Amino acid sequence: MSKKILVVAGDGIGPEIVAEAIKVLNALQADGAIDVTLEEALVGGAAYDAVGNPLPEETLTKAKASDAVLLGAVGGPKWESLHISKRPERGLLGLRAELGLFANLRPAVLYPQLAAASTLKPEIVAGLDIMIVRELTGDIYFGQPRGVETLPSGERRGINTMVYTESEVERICRVAFDIAMKRGKKVCSVDKANVLECTEMWREVATKTAAEYPEISLSHMYVDNAAMQLVRAPKQFDVMVTGNIFGDILSDCAAMLTGSIGMLPSASLNEKGQGMYEPIHGSAPDIAGRGVANPLATILSVGMMLRYSLDAPEAADRIDAAVFKVLDQGLRTADIMSEGMRQVGTAEMGDAVVAALAGE
Amino acid sequence: MSKKILVVAGDGIGPEIVAEAIKVLNALQADGAIDVTLEEALVGGAAYDAVGNPLPEETLTKAKASDAVLLGAVGGPKWESLHISKRPERGLLGLRAELGLFANLRPAVLYPQLAAASTLKPEIVAGLDIMIVRELTGDIYFGQPRGVETLPSGERRGINTMVYTESEVERICRVAFDIAMKRGKKVCSVDKANVLECTEMWREVATKTAAEYPEISLSHMYVDNAAMQLVRAPKQFDVMVTGNIFGDILSDCAAMLTGSIGMLPSASLNEKGQGMYEPIHGSAPDIAGRGVANPLATILSVGMMLRYSLDAPEAADRIDAAVFKVLDQGLRTADIMSEGMRQVGTAEMGDAVVAALAGE
Ligand SMILES: [Mg+2]
Ligand SMILES: [Mg+2]
């Protein structure tokens, strides 16, 4: 049966990069590798401009009825003065919350062809391939009580609460273990169990859940040490699993190790396997509409979609291989350009991936 | 009047590295650069072995009566099975708490002679000189409520609370601004103000306090972006100021950028200017007693002590210059050894610093 994909291009370079990802989906559809139906909807600033709401009811209904959502990017200076409830980012956060997307998958992969882009020495990062699994709906970003109160003395006091239940920890650990089973079978759970009771419980649950995965080698690391180790020897990691705030920090740190964040996709999954897929980079309003944005992170996000929500791992492998091939061919968008390579625009890069998919 | 320094050597390599730091203090005393009185006391595993308590009352009394405490390192496998209240680390935490050491100063400095030790490319890190000012007595590490509760469903739920009052934020910002006034006058305050109300308040207080320091250029950065920027372009930073948990993560990340954590000192100050000074590295039980440990971080901690608690900035400058000189001479302990340099032991390195101080 045909799988449904909702495409929400969003703002800035969103429409341009998503157009290239759609070319890739169409090519795979044409040669019978996948069977998908695409729909489009508005989100972010584009939705606000059209209907006064960054997440229109219609978009949400369509998203819930889809197997996967492909998102470009949202936001831009045009909407920054809006009330927080109307800002483009609300569209994104609303989709995450309404779909229950609790598992954020953030690969940090450094293609050997781009090793020079890293600020780290090539021998430290060449071949880097980490998958960070970040819990996305709990932790201190959502915990109650929260806010700023005024004490009897008149002084203000700010509070946020880190909260996890055992079941929340267990389900994110299962996601990490399942992914690790298809990779190197090594999971590093990151916590601050020596100081924070909440994460001490996290460690216990991770350990207990791992008992059901005898092939998985589980290790534990304190978050401050994890930040050090990512800089010292990042290739020691296979899959990392951690809470929302630690994952926020570590996934961005790991992404930057590659030096080419225009190449990095992401996935956010719920318990039913529905997912939202998007590049980790932003809407880059400064270069929007100029046809120079790098579409590869969005195309690789389609690859993750095929792997994690559409049960088409072979087609996903083909996308990964096609991206590898265009890099081998020396094609580079401006953000990853280096000497001796050939600089191409957004559409030319998308076309090159489609050609590589066809084995040309 | 003579200033009082309490020396607590601690465990593992602690006594060896502290012995070299004392040589440096004695040399400065001998040539009239400083006027100090040294006392010694037990802390950590050494104290537990002697009197059954990692922080004996006598040590605490002496520490409170001192202008500064010089600490080597605490801990080791010998004491790991002890109850948490008796572990060596309790001695350290107890000293911090009892002295009210709320301001942790963590320089991340990469000596040009050691630029190759970094996992980052030399052009990214050579000349790195960041001062991270971390709040040390508040935040989620101390906030109430905390712990693990059992819900009516039988499921457990872990909680920790991030808490800051305005006055806590203001006093740590003042420390950062005061330090920045003696450096590049640039302070980056790190928060997660877009998500956490507690740190939104932090940002407001930082901004308000900065108004009293018209020469300071204050910027704000989200913690996940700060972790990225430390990897991407660490030399953009002069002084960073942040809360306890973000500071824990970022200061370790920044330290590892240098690739030579055997070189990094630290200070923890209270409102009276009393301070505890210690290398950031641990007690390294695996190499203890072999005379191969690097004493330079401890010697540089003495430099910080002279600068921040003993009002002897010129003597502090002399220590920094002497360490620079021994590195220029090609002397290296095992942890920072590289080709073409001369490997020396702990005592020989200490002697070389003393000789460099004397202008030899
Ligand atoms: Mg982030
Ligand atoms: Mg730490």
Automatic annotation (TrEMBL), chains A, B:
Substrate binds at R96, R106, R134, D224. It comes from the Bacteria. The record marks Y141, K192 as: Important for catalysis. It catalyses: (2R,3S)-3-isopropylmalate + NAD(+) = 4-methyl-2-oxopentanoate + CO2 + NADH. Its EC number is 1.1.1.85. The keyword Metal-binding applies. It is an enzyme of class 1 (oxidoreductase). Its cofactor is Mn(2+); Mg(2+). SMART domains: Iso_dh. NAD(+) binds at residues 76-89, 282-294. Pfam families: Iso_dh (PF00180). Its main location: cytoplasm. PANTHER family: 3-ISOPROPYLMALATE DEHYDROGENASE. Homodimer. Catalyzes the oxidation of 3-carboxy-2-hydroxy-4-methylpentanoate (3-isopropylmalate) to 3-carboxy-4-methyl-2-oxopentanoate. The product decarboxylates to 4-methyl-2 oxopentanoate. Belongs to the isocitrate and isopropylmalate dehydrogenases family. LeuB type 1 subfamily. This is 3-isopropylmalate dehydrogenase. The gene is leuB.
